């Protein structure tokens, strides 16, 4: 869903949140598709994998569906990872509701009805403002596109190792990521 009438970013931010989330890009509002099973499972397992190695030692935190407002856009990546020292904690140590900064690592999981170009545009926007790494996970084609500043995107499949930001120690292959879709029953 897209609105036709251009708004300002500030006007957009005063609107009530929608389910699924809406994003503000180039003066227009785009509603994200409703996450489905594979999307939700990959999103959960990704955030869990990052937080297992990064939260306790206070290296980073991964957030699902966190609104990030910066550079004239307000986007909601499927997963955002922030280095610990960049998280805008409140005085009492709680995580704030608003993040007006770019993520250090952004991950998008392509839904069947979602346009890849819009998702890639959001990843490129993040890289332009300082994000170290972007992943586009395509569950249908079982591939991951990795976006690294100043490089061509990498198309990764099968047993290939995935690039990880330099602040994290995490070894993952494409196969491992897609193995998260299987659940023991």
Q: CATH topology, which one?
A: tt1808, chain A
Task: Give the helix proportion (percent range).
Answer: 10-25%
Tell me the number of structural domains. 1
By DSSP (H or I, 4+ residues per run), the number of helices equals 4
Give a quick account of the main beta sheet: strands, pairing sense, barrel closure.
Answer: 6 strands, mixed
Q: Globular, elongated, flat, extended or rod-shaped: what is the shape?
A: globular
Main sheet: which strands, in order across?
3-6-7-8-9-10
Strand content: 15-25%
Question: Low-confidence segments, ≥5 residues, pLDDT <50?
Answer: none
Given helix and strand content, the structural type is: alpha+beta
The CATH homologous superfamily name equals tt1808, chain A
Element-by-element helix/strand order = HEEHEEEEEHEEEH
Report what the structure shows.
The protein is an alpha+beta fold. The protein has one domain (35-179): tt1808, chain A (Alpha-Beta Complex), CATH 3.90.1570.10. Strands 3-6-7-8-9-10 form a 6-stranded mixed β-sheet, with helices on both faces. Strands 1-2 form a two-stranded antiparallel sheet. The protein is 24% helix and 24% strand.
Map the helices and strands.
Blueprint: H1 9-14, E1 22-25, E2 28-31, H2 37-54, E3 60-64, E4 68-70, E5 73-75, E6 79-83, E7 105-109, H3 116-129, E8 133-138, E9 143-147, E10 154-157, H4 174-179
Describe the structure using short key phrases:
tt1808, chain A; globular; 24% strand; alpha+beta; 185 residues; 4 helices; 24% helix; 6-stranded mixed β-sheet
